[in-house]
Design goal:
It is built from six helices and seven strands, in the order ααββαβββαβαβα. The protein has 196 residues and is α+β, with helices and mostly antiparallel strands. Strands 1, 2, 3, 4, 5, 6 and 7 form a seven-stranded mixed β-sheet that branches.
Length: 196
């Protein structure tokens, strides 16, 4: 609520919880900016992270999305870095199948990406999925992008130890959702990259 007071561009929407996918779809529908970024409520971007990403996007206007590394905060405050595949470059602009290959071989989360809104207006999170909806959304969104900006920089901090974290929850029906999503994506996209 304090952000609403500080910045007129911020809009607070209170809805009964209908699942993460439904909430994110609603956010896309009501958003008015040029880009869409997703965050979990107790994760955060590094200080000035969003400004840095937007500056890079302005410097590379041919890119319709940006992907960046993230830090997993593990038990006891330990961290594990996840770097996007950039071939050692700090900033890499790629296009065509290379976009799909690099993004889907990096973390398939939406939280370490910024999407041009006009290209995800008709892409939705599947509200029936309890796990893997990020990966499915990303695979569908990437099909619409001609170029992506891949940043080696770690900007998103992901708290893996928070209570109720879906990623660290016990194996159950959610795990089956994840397997289903990965099978669909493999059949649709990965086969073109398979080495025979």
């Amino acid at each position: 609520e304090s952000y609403v007071i500080q910045d007129e561009r911020v809009q607070l929407c209170k809805r009964s919880h209908m699942g993460q996918g439904s909430q994110r779809n609603y956010g896309i529908d009501i958003s008015k900016g040029k880009y869409v970024v997703f965050m979990d409520s107790d994760d955060y971007l590094e200080k000035k992270g969003l400004s840095f990403i937007m500056s890079e996007l302005r410097s590379h206007p041919e890119a319709q999305m940006a992907c960046f590394g993230f830090t997993r905060i593990l038990r006891g405050g330990k961290t594990k870095m996840s770097v996007m595949p950039t071939d050692g470059e700090e900033v890499l602009v790629c296009g065509g199948d290379d976009v799909l290959y690099r993004i889907m071989n990096g973390p398939g989360y939406v939280t370490n990406k910024i999407f041009m809104k006009s290209l995800v207006d008709n892409v939705e999170f599947d509200p029936r999925l309890r796990y893997g909806e990020d990966t499915m959304f990303v695979s569908q969104a990437v099909e619409r992008y001609k170029n992506a900006l891949i940043l080696k920089t770690m900007l998103y901090c992901y708290d893996c130890e928070r209570e109720g974290n879906v990623t660290t929850a016990a194996l159950d029906e959610r795990s089956l959702d994840y397997l289903r999503v990965n099978r669909i994506i493999f059949e649709k996209h990965y086969r073109k990259f398979a080495v025979v």
